[in-house]
Amino acid sequence: MHITEVKVHEVPMNFSWLSEGLIANPMSIYPAYRKKRSSWFGPMTAAIVEIVTDEGLSGLGTVGGGKAKLAKPIIEEQLKTLLVGSNPFDIELLWEQMFRASQFYGRKGAVINVISGIDIALWDLVGKALGQPVYNLIGGKTKEKIPAYVTGNLTERHLAQGFRDVKLAVPHGPADGREGLRKNIELIAKTRELVGPDGDIMLDCYMALDVPYAIQLAKAAREFNVLWIEEPVPPDQIDSYRQIKDAVPDMLITGGEHEFTRYGFRDLIEKKAVDILQPDIYRAGGISELKKIAAMASAHNLPVIPHGVGAATYHFVISTNNAPRAEFVDIYAQGGRPALKGEPEPKNGFIELSAAPGFGYELDDEILSGKASAALIW
User: Fold this and answer.
1) CA 56, CA 36: separation in Å to the nearest integer?
2) What is the number of other CB atoms lying within 10 angstroms of the CB of residue 297?
3) For the segment 244-280, what is each residue's pLDDT rounded down to a tens digit?
4) In the chain, N or C terminus with fewer CB closer than 10 Å?
5) DSSP structure class, residue 376
6) Interior CA angle at 66 toward 60 and 284, to 5°?
7) pTM for this predicted structure
8) Which whole-number Å values give the CA distances from 139 to 16, 107, 142, 143, 316, in the listed order?
9) Average model confidence (pLDDT) for the chain?
10) DSSP 3-state assignment of 149?
């Protein structure tokens, strides 16, 4: 079997609370861009990579990052040359070749997003070829079902859906001063009342804070038994992560959503910057790279709780001992549906996976034709 074609299917995404709501972000310090992410992010697209073989089998993988229009030129200009004619079972070799060949303009960001989508598509293809779910190929089940928490500020909706653990998107950052901090704490307090004493509350800060503000927020949040504060500062400020951890040792500090490959996560681990690693499978390098990240983390007794939704994420989590739970981002609150048919969805706070070959999903022709809209994937 060999690869004959690499296709890219671009998928425009719906606006949602993630893009249109008031959520603290790296651009919140500028008044013109404070109210919504779409004011500075621009149009968001996803891409589905489809790898086709001479035996008629194909595999599908999602490209992350929200700027997937970049996927097609990156693949057409270079990566396709490395893939066509190759054995799709040679996943490790192909990953390393794509990474080495693109280092002069890649290493992080859009190129690794694209390599992630390709890697996921290869695993899907191999699973279909062998008639096995991907989780059986990368370690087998370490748990029968996956506990899932939900991300979003619509807690009443989420409790009605059966979730008990919620992650809030923090609305205000340093530019909003004491009034913004007060409103953040009010949101946390209200959420604690709704979920009760036993539900976990986490805070997603999306790179929006600075060290003094993050420390203030963490100290105030302790009263409400907040489990972790996520990505409080930009990803390159690794020493700032450590400063926050040292100042609030009884609060978990997490990050990694915007980090890339084993090399970026090696730095987070070696500097003891975070308590939990949160790679995004569609950005950090795909299944192949997340397994390496998890192995490094395991040697340092660190859990890995990936950022994001979807089958690839959940197959990784169910097959990885030090991945205790998964995230479900409520991307459907304003409508839309997954870009791929067959994506697993939580029920009563848990995710169960079928034994379907590959990741168990397929292309949605209505999404690709524009007759239906895809939910926002951030």
Assistant:
1) 44
2) 23
3) 999 999 999 999 999 999 999 999 999 999 999 999 9
4) N
5) P
6) 65
7) 0.97
8) 36, 27, 8, 11, 9
9) 95
10) strand
Q: What one-character DSSP code corresponds to residue 108?
A: S
Cα–Cα distance for residue pair 332/19, rounded to 1 Å: 13
Torsion over CA of 265, 268, 272 and 277, rounded to 10 degrees?
-60
> Tens digit of pLDDT for each residue in 188-201?
999 999 999 999 99
Cα 96 from Cα 82, distance rounded (Å): 11
So what's the pLDDT on residue 318? Answer: 98
What tokens appear for 370 in the block?
């524009």
- Choose, from 9, 158, 258, 307, the residue flagged as catalytic: 307
pLDDT per residue over 314-327, tens digit each? 999 999 999 999 99
Q: What is the DSSP string of 278-344?
A: --BTTTTTHHHHHHHHHHHHHHTT--B--BS-SHHHHHHHHT-TT---EEEE-TTTTS-B-SEET--
Q: DSSP letters along 254-285, please?
A: EE-TT--HHHHHHHHHHTT--SEE--BTTTTT
pLDDT tens by residue, 154-184 = 999 999 999 999 999 999 999 999 999 999 9
Classified as helix, coil or strand, 2 is: coil
Residues 208-229 have pLDDT tens digits of: 999 999 999 999 999 999 999 9
Burial class (CB in 10 A: 0-12, 13-18, 19+), 274: buried
Q: Which string of DSSP letters, residue by residue, matches 161-200? A: TT---EEEE----GGGHHHHHHHHHHHHHHHHHHH-SSS-
307 catalytic, yes or no?
A: yes
| Tokens at 167, concatenated | 């992650």
Are 91 and 122 in contact by the 8 Å Cβ rule? The answer is yes
Pairing of strands 146-151, 326-329: parallel
Element (H, E) at 45: strand 45-53
Tokens of 332: 């459907």
Given a contact cutoff of 8 angstroms between Cβ atoms, the answer to whether 225 and 201 are in contact is: yes
**Can you say how many angstroms the Cα of residue 114 is from the centroid of all Cα atoms in its chain?**
14
